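A reminder from the course coordinator: this example appears on the midterm review sheet, so study it carefully.

Given structure:
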């Protein structure tokens, strides 16, 4: 079982569950509290429980409905770890918010897709259509890079991994690109021609990642990771968590459950 937490409910849930204000007590009890987003991340981490239990640790899973709170909760010590983000997003969070958290291992790769509820191929998308992308710099930039890679738009040189809509230099189809919160991109499918959707949200919404009308190549810096507080990086429980995640059992589960739509990195 995992617990779904939102921005408003984080502190209330922590109190109700008697979570300590820092990670010290949880570590003394050999409990590791890990934050994930709903869908594949939660499913995968659930499978780790019996593996890490053999190493003497109890894994408690908390689901979060956005991409910000898991890092806040980790930084404040309300979690020991999280597993939901890629390195560019973590780097951006650390830079913008001053979090003292760091990656300790890569996990799985979720190639991003452009999905449509109205069209079966990108060729069918009409000129002037509206396409929704994520409004955070790293995932929104990733969506724009995907569109550029597929020849849909062109971006300014030198924008790196975080281009914005202002960096578009060529838009032959005259697409209207709107930015919305990442967790709302699935819902936007009813209102737009197509939407860039993170695979974790797509799978959680029962979308088949292989049905995306455009799909990111499984390469680049967007591999997901396990993050912990920087002061905890060398603690024994961290290695136990990493080894349990990057185990043959989890690799087999990912292959069987996700049929190539999500790829292990080990």
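Designed residues:
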């Amino acid at each position: 079982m995992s617990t779904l937490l939102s921005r408003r409910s984080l502190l209330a849930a922590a109190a109700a569950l008697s979570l300590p204000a820092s990670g010290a007590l949880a570590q003394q009890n050999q409990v590791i509290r890990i934050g994930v987003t709903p869908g594949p991340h939660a499913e995968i981490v659930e499978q780790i429980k019996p593996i890490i239990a053999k190493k003497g640790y109890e894994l408690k899973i908390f689901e979060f409905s956005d991409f910000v709170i898991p890092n806040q909760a980790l930084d404040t010590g309300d979690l020991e770890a999280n597993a939901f983000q890629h390195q560019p997003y973590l780097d951006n969070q650390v830079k913008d918010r001053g979090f003292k958290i760091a990656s300790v291992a890569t996990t799985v790769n979720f190639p991003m897709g452009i999905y449509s509820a109205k069209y079966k191929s990108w060729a069918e998308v009409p000129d002037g259509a509206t396409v929704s992308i994520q409004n955070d710099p790293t995932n929104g930039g990733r969506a724009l890079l995907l569109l550029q890679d597929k020849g849909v738009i062109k971006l300014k040189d030198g924008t790196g991994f975080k281009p914005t809509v202002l960096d578009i230099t060529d838009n032959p189809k005259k697409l209207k690109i709107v930015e919305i919160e990442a967790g709302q991109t699935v819902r936007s499918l009813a209102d737009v021609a197509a939407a860039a959707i993170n695979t974790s949200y797509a799978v959680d919404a029962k979308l088949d990642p292989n049905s995306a009308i455009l799909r990111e190549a499984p390469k680049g810096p967007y591999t997901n990771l396990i993050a912990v507080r920087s002061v905890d990086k060398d603690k024994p429980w961290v290695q136990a968590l990493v080894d349990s995640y990057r185990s043959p059992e989890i690799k087999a589960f990912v292959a069987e459950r996700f049929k190539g739509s999500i790829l292990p990195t080990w």
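The chain has two domains: 2-110+221-264, 113-215. The first strand starts at residue 2 and ends at 5.
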